[in-house]
TrEMBL record:
Location (main, coarse): endoplasmic reticulum
Protein name, entry field: Selenoprotein F
Presence of keyword Signal: yes
Domain Selenoprotein F/M residues, every copy: 84-158
Record GO terms (molecular function): oxidoreductase activity
SUPFAM superfamilies: Thioredoxin-like
Organism: Durio zibethinus (Durian)
Similarity field: Belongs to the selenoprotein M/F family.
A single GO cellular-component term on record: endoplasmic reticulum lumen
Locations listed in the record: Endoplasmic reticulum lumen
Secretion signal, residue range per the UniProt entry: 1-20
Keywords: Endoplasmic reticulum, Selenocysteine, Signal
Amino acid sequence: MLRNILYYFLLIILVISSAAVIASSSKGQLSSKQCEDLGFTGLALCSDCNTFSEYVKDKELISDCLKCCTEDSDDSITKITYSGAILEVCMRKLVFYPEIVGFIEEEKDKFPTVKVQYLFNSPPKLIMLDDEGQHKETIRIDNWKREHMLQFLQEKVKPNSASS
């Protein structure tokens, strides 16, 4: 009797967990917040996920990557631009990010539409803004060099109307 109850209990758990997996996999794309929580920025191309899968054999991780990626095309990533950005970082953690400190102190003034926002315990990130000032994309920049930040912002942030 106890064995039968245990068997049915395990069967119910299996059915519920299978339903949860099916429901989550049928959703397709994840929100940018969900992708950020998983460690994906949303800027990855789906071909990057395929390359990633050659080296990493974790099917769940690859599945998450594919739910957060952007389809490859000539127009998809290269032509996306933003009206501005917020560089968000924790002031106490800045000591660990000399490249970001250098950017803020020496390069930030070249980008009038980029604002610095200090938020306690926030990892360094760029929050990309649309024409209405709404958050469109969040990109972690923990390991970026100053020249990577410069190049990215030059390519992705529209120059302000006063300079055009």
